[in-house]
């Protein structure tokens, strides 16, 4: 009987997206796992052609396949269309954004003891996009929405993730001392959910104190669960502890659908130059392999990435300060280097 071929929506994105997605695709296929890629396009170029950056065909493909690997998409600042990433998460109800931060051996200058999972609520908070000018050019207002349903399911996901993966503790991060009603509700629900998981330790941390603690002693924390905006910010902080966004993978998880995308943006200033670090997207591919049940292949990819970092013989431009004696290589060469270390 032939090996299963996984039907996966592949969204190259824009900026450096097509380059890092191609690198990830090569590594994933080199594991021997078979894929049937359904290539769909979203982003600025699509918006010019079709009048929307997120055509319905993209969403239909993800619904049909159940899983997608996505490159970064540029989000205009201050004007233009709203985020394609947010649009996909809301349209498909991908309520949990999971962002691991793990120290890679061999990257001197970064924290050596980081092994964190950031679980971010993905569908509400300030990212609902309800805002307006109260007085044009003088005052503006935004609405932050926190619901029991969204809070409960993301906290429960964090505890279930901890239980499945042998994690010891979940920390709910909040600002309920100031945002007494919205974060008050999030924190109340977190306590209720935590009470149903006696095997997993639970604690709470105010967001500003959490940021300080992550810089001072990140090894003291395990799984963090946060509302949308706080999770977005803290996950980038955690990425900075382990080498930057170039090594930070991510996943968007719903009840039946999942979209895997690196944490970093589209970096249009370096697009097409073959200098972007594909490691984050390759590790994102490993997260996707685990989701598909291909845990052995995922472990091989992660081990190959770690081996390249440990050897320190080759690096991309963003990590040059961490490995100043390494040979500088480009996006596709890094993918080839990782493939050479696949066992």
General description of the model:
This protein is of the alpha/beta class and 343 residues long. The protein has two domains: 1-99 and 248-343, Isopropylmalate Dehydrogenase, CATH 3.40.718.10; 111-241, Isopropylmalate Dehydrogenase (3-Layer(aba) Sandwich). The protein is 39% helix and 19% strand. The chain has eleven helices and 14 strands. The chain has helices spanning 17-30, 44-50, 56-65, 84-91, 148-164, 182-194, 207-216, 228-241, 279-291, 295-311, 331-340, and strands spanning 5-11, 34-39, 67-70, 96-102, 115-121, 131-135, 139-142, 169-174, 201-206, 223-226, 251-253, 258-260, 314-315, 327-328. The strands form three sheets. The protein has a ten-stranded mixed sheet, sandwiched between helices. Strands 6-7 form a two-stranded antiparallel sheet. The chain is globular. 46% of the residues are buried.
Write a compact overview of the structure shown:
With 343 residues, the chain is of the alpha/beta class. It is 39% helix and 19% strand.
Q: Secondary-structure blueprint of this entry?
A:
Blueprint: E1 5-11, H1 17-30, E2 34-39, H2 44-50, H3 56-65, E3 67-70, H4 84-91, E4 96-102, E5 115-121, E6 131-135, E7 139-142, H5 148-164, E8 169-174, H6 182-194, E9 201-206, H7 207-216, E10 223-226, H8 228-241, E11 251-253, E12 258-260, H9 279-291, H10 295-311, E13 314-315, E14 327-328, H11 331-340
Parallel strand pairs: 1-2, 1-3, 3-12, 5-10, 8-9, 8-10, 13-14
Antiparallel strand pairs: 4-5, 4-11, 6-7, 11-12
Helix pairs in contact: 1-9, 1-11, 5-6, 7-8, 9-10, 10-11
């Amino acid at each position: 009987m032939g090996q299963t071929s996984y039907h996966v929506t592949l969204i190259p994105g824009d900026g450096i997206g097509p380059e890092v997605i191609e690198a990830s695709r090569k590594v994933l296929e080199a594991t021997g796992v078979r894929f049937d890629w359904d290539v769909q396009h979203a982003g600025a170029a699509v918006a010019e052609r079709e009048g929307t950056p997120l055509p319905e065909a993209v969403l239909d493909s993800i619904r049909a396949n159940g899983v997608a690997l996505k490159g970064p998409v540029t989000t205009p600042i201050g004007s233009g269309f709203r985020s394609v990433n947010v649009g996909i998460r809301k349209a498909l109800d991908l309520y949990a954004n999971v962002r691991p931060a793990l120290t890679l051996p061999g990257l001197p200058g970064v924290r050596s003891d980081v092994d964190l999972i950031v679980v971010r609520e993905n569908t509400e908070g300030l990212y609902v996009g309800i805002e307006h000018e109260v007085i044009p050019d003088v005052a503006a207002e935004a609405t932050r929405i926190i619901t029991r349903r969204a809070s409960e399911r993301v906290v429960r996901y964090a505890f279930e993730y901890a239980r499945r993966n042998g994690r010891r503790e979940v920390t709910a991060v909040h600002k309920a001392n100031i945002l007494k009603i919205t974060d008050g509700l999030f924190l109340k629900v977190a306590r209720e959910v935590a009470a149903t998981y006696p095997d997993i330790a639970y604690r709470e941390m105010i967001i500003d104190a959490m940021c300080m603690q992550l810089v001072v002693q990140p090894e003291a924390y395990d799984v963090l669960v946060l509302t949308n905006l706080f999770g977005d910010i803290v996950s980038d902080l955690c990425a900075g502890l382990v080498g930057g966004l170039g090594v930070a993978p991510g996943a968007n998880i719903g009840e039946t659908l999942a979209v895997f995308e690196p944490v970093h943006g589209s970096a249009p200033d370096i697009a097409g130059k073959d200098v972007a670090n594909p490691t984050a997207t390759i590790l994102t591919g490993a997260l996707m392999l685990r989701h598909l049940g291909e845990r052995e292949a995922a472990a091989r990819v992660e081990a190959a990435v770690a081996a390249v970092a440990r050897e320190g013989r080759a690096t991309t431009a963003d990590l040059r300060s961490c490995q100043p004696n390494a040979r500088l290589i480009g996006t596709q060469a890094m993918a080839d280097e990782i493939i050479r270390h696949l066992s």
